[in-house]
């Protein structure tokens, strides 16, 4: 049975844009509102570009981008010297970014990172906002990665493989709490403006 216009409108209203049009298309309009999201990849995977595109999807400019391990751009908040409680207090808006949770783990340990990922996100999530955390591959132990994977609502992996003289990059949605998980990995390119996702995918 085909859903009526009211059902479709309600469905879209429960989603928030990722800032990447190809990914929004694959997810039927974006990610579910009120969820925390981890983007997992190495330092050259484009995870920072993903995070910035997500943040810039808030056209009001009212969402916080907390940057702990790089130079802050216009509108971002330098958060290198903030405590866990101060990081939590600085979160605001509906497209919040913490760049990166890896730095939080290294500075405050895995327990501090889990507190930020759970208790620290409660208010934003209750108000229907989303929080994106960058986590760098190859920096943490398997046990640490397992813990943050368990507590995140959405887990996205950015991977790359070398085939001959070509780099093949792919985005995989490993976890979406309360939703079906696509059985496909989506090729993407790193462009001057950010990540561009293909509208095709391959079965995983």
Question: Any descriptors?
Answer:
single chain; 204 residues; alpha/beta; ten-stranded mixed sheet; two-stranded antiparallel ribbon; 12 strands; disordered N terminus
Can you give a write-up of this model?
The protein is of the alpha/beta class. It has a single domain, classed as Rossmann fold (3-Layer(aba) Sandwich), CATH 3.40.50. Helices cover 31% and strands 30% of the residues. It contains seven helices and twelve strands. The strands form two sheets. Strands 3, 4, 5, 6, 7, 8, 9, 10, 11 and 12 form a ten-stranded mixed sheet that branches. Strand 10 and strand 11 form a beta hairpin. The protein is globular and about 45 Å long. The N terminus is likely disordered.
Question: How many structural domains does the protein architecture include?
Answer: 1
How many strand units? Answer: 12
* Rg from Cα: 17 Å
Query: Would you list the SSEs in sequence order as H and E?
Result: HEHEEHEEHEHHEHEEEEE
Low-confidence stretches: 1-11
CATH topology: Rossmann fold
Q: Characterize the overall form.
A: globular
What about the largest sheet?
10 strands, mixed
Structural class: alpha/beta
In the CATH hierarchy, what is the class?
A: Alpha Beta
Q: Helix coverage percent of residues?
A: 25-40%
Can you say what the CATH homologous superfamily is? P-loop containing nucleotide triphosphate hydrolases
Report the span from N to C terminus: 29 Å
* Proportion in β-strands: 25-35%
Q: Tell me the CATH architecture.
A: 3-Layer(aba) Sandwich
Total helical elements: 7
Mean pLDDT: 90
